[in-house]
Amino acid sequence: MGCVNVKKQAKLRKKLTPSMTPVTGDSHKQNSDLPSSKPSDYEPLSFLGVGGFAEVIACKHLPTQSFRAQKKIPKSKIKSYHMHSLGILKEAYFLGSLNHPNILKFFEYFDDRDNFYLITEVCKGNSLYNLLVKSGKLSENKVQEIMFQVLQAVEYLHEKKIVHRDIKPENVLLTLSNGSCLKLSDFGSAEQMVKMNKLTGCFGSVFYLAPEVFKNEYDEKVDIWSCGVMIWVLITGKQPYDEIDFKSVKEKIEQKPLQPNQLELGGLSCDGMDLIKMMLEVDSRKRISAAEALKHKWFGDISKKHH
Predict the structure, then answer these.
(1) Where are the annotated segments for Disordered (predicted)?
(2) pTM score, two decimals?
């Protein structure tokens, strides 16, 4: 889903419309024992949402009579950076390789002449963004519960050398409307770290971008910055910068990036302030990792429940 009131960054890249093959389950390779799905195998039920270049509907998979979510992506809107070197959508490539309780479950991926179709589980609770809009802002206990799950997903990704690059409330889906169980979604901007190389390119919603992104050399710590911004947004119920257009927000991040302060986060505990400061450390080399964040005392009671 797109970021509200922010102009989308123009990305001038060569379009690709390669010949596609289905991807099923946890494998990047087509399983010859499984029949290839097609759009007619899915009966549309209800509209779930729309993003910058895709729409998502709830549907019934007729062969199995199961309920799933179908993300339809027009091929006309696909750029080269959306594609993996293996010739499939990066989002399908990454989701097909992941298996974690806090990451959206992937079923299959196929295409027709005009569109790509990515099939995942349905999350009935809508998105964290919708919960935030409905609530105005969230309690510290609720934010702790949410962020512990998000960081578990991020830790898992980083262990696999995968950087999400677009962590924000819109991309956190709730399996229950109260937000007690959630899934990280939308891997269209994800990329894999190769050996010790840094990543380049500007991806994601500008409000959540780390300062080093604009230096065009960064690593997985950009996800931690995004998580820190998300804590700020969930606690305050406000966007992190007063500016709304891409250029102005970019300049603000470069010159005076978001930093925690008691005035804006007055209701946050000392432990919470300590963690968010570590996550919004401008020097990415000193920024806390997902694994370290999960061990922080702010998550003390929640962490005990998960061990």
Answers:
(1) 1-40
(2) 0.85
